[in-house]
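FW: tagging you since you asked about this chain on Friday. Here's the raw sequence from the shared folder, copied in full. Didn't touch anything.
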Amino acid sequence: MDIHNKNFIITTSEKETLNLAEKIAKLIKPGDVISISGELGTGKTCFVKGLAKGLGISQIVTSPSFVILKIYHNKIPLYHFDVYRLDKPFQLEDIGFNQFQYADGVTVIEWGNKMKELLAFDHLQVKFDYYENKKRKIKFIPHGESWVKKIKNLNLINSI
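HL: got it, structure written out here
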C-alpha cells in the first residue's frame, strides 16, 4: 500500500482493496450512501465485497449489473446497485431508488457518477483509477459533514 495524501491511496492487490473496504465498513451507519466510479475492471465490485465482509455479510457478493440491485441482509442491510446499463436518472427512480437510499441499510452504487443528481447530499464518493503495474488509485471524496468527519478520522497508514 502506498499513501500519497489523506484522500487517496494506491492498492497493489485485490486483498489490499478488500481490506481497505472492510476498514471503511467500520465507519458505516444505517442510511449511509457510497457512490463508486471507475473504468471497467478497476475494483469497484471488489470494494463492495470488502464492505459486505466488514458489515458481517457472509453471502457471496457479485455485481448486479444485469439486475440493477442486489440486497444483502444483515444487521445493516447492503443495497448494492450497479447502474452501468442505465442511461437516465429516472430509470433508477422508477425502481424505487430513494426508498433504499433513505432506508435502514447502506446504499452502494457502482457507476454512481452516472446518477449523481439523485444521490443524497451526504454521501461518500469513491473513485477508482488504474495506476502503474496493475495497481489501483482509490480516491475518497466526502460529501456532507458526516463523511467529512469519517474520512478525516480514518487512519489509512499501515492499516491495510
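FW: The chain has a mean pLDDT of 88.
HL: agreed, and The domain at 2-153 is CATH 3.40.50.300 (Rossmann fold).
FW: great, closing this out.
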